[in-house]
Automatic annotation (TrEMBL):
<protein>
    <submittedName>
        <fullName>Flagellar biosynthetic protein FliO</fullName>
    </submittedName>
</protein>
<dbReference type="InterPro" id="IPR022781">
    <property type="entry name" value="Flagellar_biosynth_FliO"/>
</dbReference>
<keyword id="KW-0975">Bacterial flagellum</keyword>
<keyword id="KW-0812">Transmembrane</keyword>
<keyword id="KW-0969">Cilium</keyword>
<dbReference type="Pfam" id="PF04347">
    <property type="entry name" value="FliO"/>
</dbReference>
<dbReference type="InterPro" id="IPR052205">
    <property type="entry name" value="FliO/MopB"/>
</dbReference>
<feature type="transmembrane region" description="Helical">
    <location>
        <begin position="12"/>
        <end position="32"/>
    </location>
</feature>
<comment type="similarity">
    <text>Belongs to the FliO/MopB family.</text>
</comment>
<keyword id="KW-1003">Cell membrane</keyword>
<keyword id="KW-0966">Cell projection</keyword>
<keyword id="KW-1133">Transmembrane helix</keyword>
<keyword id="KW-0472">Membrane</keyword>
<keyword id="KW-0282">Flagellum</keyword>
Length: 101
């Protein structure tokens, strides 16, 4: 078996070092993604939710979005997104009109 050409040795050493660094970066990214998966993503999903969505006509949709303790009514159409109303989030208890019925 013949040894590698002497001019290829630095190139192979550099390629091996680059592959090692890339493997370390991939391992670090995997660890960070795994560590973060249970924390901020779960907290963000509790803070932001789409409560309801209805089509007004063929091009406009109303979307009720809850963020923390505030609900935002958005009109989404071909011209963009418009904030229609912002109110405190409704509690889980029924409204007085519903309770009396």
């Amino acid at each position: 078996m013949t040894p590698l050409a002497p001019e290829l040795a630095p190139l192979l050493r550099t390629a091996a070092a680059l592959a090692g660094v890339l493997l370390l970066l991939l391992a670090l990214a995997w660890l960070l993604r795994r560590h973060d998966a249970g924390g901020s993503a779960a907290a963000a999903s509790r803070r932001l939710a789409i409560v309801a969505s209805r089509m007004v006509d063929a091009r406009i949709r109303l979307v009720l979005v809850r963020r923390d303790a505030v609900e935002h009514l958005l009109a989404i159409g071909p011209t963009g997104i418009t904030l229609v109303e912002t109110v405190p989030a409704a509690s889980s208890s029924p409204a007085p009109e519903e309770a009396a019925a």
